[in-house]
Amino acid sequence: MTAPRVAIIGGGPAGAAAALTLARGGVEVVVVDASRGPAEKIGESLPPSVRPLLARLELLELLDAAAHRPSFGNRASWGQAEAAEEDFMFGLYGAGWHLDRRRFEAALAKAAEQAGARWLWDHHAVDARHPGGAGGWRLELEGPESLVELDARFILDATGRPARFAVGAGARRIHLDRLVGLALRFDSAGLGDGEGMDGMDGFTVVEAIESGWWYTAPLSGGRAIAVYMSDGDLFDTRSARTAGGWRALLDAAPETRARLRPWLERALEPSATIARAGSAYTSPPAGPGWLAIGDAAVAFDPLSSHGIGSAMTTGYYGACAAAEVLSGGADTGALATYADLVASLFDDYLDLLHQHYRREQRWPTSPFWARRRERLSLDSGR
């Protein structure tokens, strides 16, 4: 296999944005993606604020497809029982998007390939060796049929929250809280007028409750998603995944329950899926011959709506840093600049997150809300 100058371990929005940026800059790049192909994932909204980045990457046309629904705003019962509304149509960038995540990631990968990147689906990076000097990295990949060796001068870690490559290279993965999301998707097939997608009205609805918070949002293809957010040590995650356990949690959220009432018998899965959703970062986010992007660098609480947009942002700037190193720029200088950018992005996010959480004061004795009275800091992790 011809040695690329950059190997990106992991795909997703961060890996695709990085691959696209590098390929358009004339850098040889290969994406090593463990997935067999684009798949459904939790993380289905893009806020309007991501439009400038999408325009810079020449990707806005990907969101014109009928597969994606417009996101008109957020409606939140937060700090008070009465819902407050944020209408995106009165903002600078207009509507956001409720994504078909599988189709969106497929389109991103296709755009990267059309720019010249190679995309290796169903390949797992099982080993990495860094001889030092100018030799770069030697990766051992497990493909569908055999083991393959791949040499690269620079590695981008886009493995998501586990940050597998960065941790293997000596970085620490630091979690600032225990937030998890318990998600269930629904299909509107068979629902009458005003009950299905009409009832969802293009808004994401957030509802705070004593033990955490809920959000519901429409998806493409006549579907919707509902997610319960709380700390994983505050409830029985095993029983909560069952239909009965999930509905018991839903009973504490009257606005969410009312919105979902027509959908409740139309779940697409027999049980809810659970995933980490808290704030986390990798320290350092870059080292000799590598850097982390997307959730592998910094991961965000979904309340912030930072996820996909920030993943693509770090993918873009991480690719720029890698290209500078490869062009003969000072390795440590480019990587230090990137690390500072990631730290600044995460610090601004922590300020925003604290502002959001401190608005909710209705349950002063709740362990979930008590943990969020103080601003998280880079020193409060574990």
Automatic annotation (TrEMBL):
Q: Which SUPFAM superfamilies match?
A: FAD/NAD(P)-binding domain
* Molecular function via GO: monooxygenase activity
Checking InterPro entries in the record gives: FAD/NAD-bd_sf (IPR036188), Flavin-dep_Halogenase_NPB (IPR050816), Flavin_halogenase (IPR006905)
Q: Which Pfam families match?
A: Trp_halogenase
UniProt name for this protein: Uncharacterized protein
